């Protein structure tokens, strides 16, 4: 016989399971498509950068910088930023719009990764990058859904946000950071 607590937790468990399923489905779909569509390495656009890899590295760097804004503004909103007891009202807008901008900056990057390059596993770094890139969009989808699902544990959105930031840092280190360390590649 169940208790009221068990029955109250049941919808949250299903919602958490749904979030996990969405994250896995999005990540797996991206990986599967990128694997069966190896791409030809051609850039469809470079937005004025000297090449596709330069564009991807700089846009990912900008998105990663905005994710730092995301983390700091989230910490301020939740009262966890050292030295900040209450956050000003504009922090919520900063958090939302820096997230929108970061996401938009990643779209040309993922498009070129999936369409032009495909899923690669030539080295550990490239495999880690391919996996992290797919996981990033899976976690993003789960976080966006979690924002709209009622009854989730209060820690769900902050955990997904932290995971999203951490995965983007892995993407950045396994791509842009490496790229900028190569000779003659860091130019615009």
Topology:
Layout: H1 4-36, H2 52-77, H3 90-117, H4 124-146, H5 156-181
Helix pairs in contact: 1-3, 1-4, 2-3, 2-5, 4-5
Which class best fits the helix and strand makeup?
A: mainly alpha
Principal-axis shape = globular
Give me the Rg, rounded.
19 Å
The percentage of residues in β strands lies in under 5%
Mean pLDDT: 91
Low-confidence stretches: none
Termini, distance in Å? 65 Å
Q: What about the largest sheet?
A: none
**Using DSSP, what is the number of strands?**
0
Total discrete domains: 1
Number of helical regions: 5
Helicity, as a percent range: over 70%
Report the oligomer. single chain
N-to-C series of helices and strands: HHHHH
Give me a quick take on this structure.
With 188 residues, this protein is an all-alpha fold.
């Amino acid at each position: 016989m169940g208790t009221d607590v068990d029955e109250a937790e049941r919808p949250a468990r299903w919602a958490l399971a749904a979030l996990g399923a969405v994250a896995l489905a999005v990540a797996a779909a991206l990986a599967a498509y990128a694997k069966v569509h190896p791409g030809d390495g051609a850039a469809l656009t470079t937005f004025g950068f000297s090449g596709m890899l330069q564009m991807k590295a700089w846009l990912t760097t900008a998105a990663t910088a905005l994710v730092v804004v995301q983390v700091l503004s989230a910490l301020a909103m939740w009262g966890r930023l050292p030295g900040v007891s209450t956050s000003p009202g504009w922090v919520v807008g900063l958090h939302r719009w820096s997230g929108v901008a970061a996401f938009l900056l990643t779209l040309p990057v993922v498009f070129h990764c999936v369409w032009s390059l495909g899923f690669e596993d030539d080295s550990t770094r490239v495999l880690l990058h391919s996996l992290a890139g797919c996981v990033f969009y899976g976690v993003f989808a789960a976080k966006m859904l979690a924002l709209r699902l009622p009854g989730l544990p209060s820690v769900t959105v902050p955990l997904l946000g932290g995971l999203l930031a951490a995965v983007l840092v892995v993407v950045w280190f396994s791509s842009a950071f490496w790229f900028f360390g190569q000779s003659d590649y860091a130019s615009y």
